[in-house]
């Protein structure tokens, strides 16, 4: 189901049903996908969507909380009130989460990721006031996470020191974070296959390629791009993690094209 551009809509109406025993607030027992976009006055949704697997909320700034979503797998929230974040923390069935454009948000809730243990892909984008992703978020609990992207956060200064604990992370993309100075000294996840760092103009340091036990880090890395990082002084000391087949790896270090920001 898709609802778009209903600027005066404040709530979803109760739907008549032949099932007299259906509880109020769960009028859509079989609905699997719901997209609500550009409904700036929407304040309330039905209490429960028992079967909903995919939800997109975009441009619903008056919505203060999400309904019950016991079967949710994919959630995308864009241009929304930060109070909605409190409704996300208990969605333990989530496998995909994208959060964009939350005005005035400087940091996420403590232990925000603690219960999102099924999460496989995380995207954090265009959070214009975000300054930190701290260790208190519980990022280390995301042991199913395979892909993570952080982009468009101009005031983000640090990444969590626990980043290296994401044992199964395969793809990491960090872009358009011009205030980011360095990556955690504790290092990056050892199972990375793809690492992209773009347009982080204040980035000066990357973690060492070597682990503390002197073993080679990132033996599986296949794709490495560092682009538009004009303050980066040097690559880390030690052998570049290009694996056994050099010809099949891509390592790119270059400045952004003129006019790019």
How would you characterize the overall build of this protein?
- There is one protein chain.
- With 261 residues, the chain is an all-beta fold.
- It has 2 domains: 1-11 and 24-84, no CATH class; 89-261, Leucine-rich repeat, LRR (right-handed beta-alpha superhelix) (Alpha-Beta Horseshoe).
- The protein has 1 helix and 11 strands, in the order E-E-E-E-H-E-E-E-E-E-E-E.
- The chain has one helix at 85-88; strands spanning 2-4, 33-37, 54-60, 74-80, 96-100, 121-125, 147-151, 171-175, 194-198, 223-227, 250-254.
- The protein is elongated.
Instruction: Look at the structure and give the CATH class of the largest domain.
Output: Alpha Beta
Q: What's the total number of strands?
A: 11
Count the DSSP helices.
1
Low-confidence stretches at least 5 residues in length (pLDDT < 50)? 243-251, 255-261
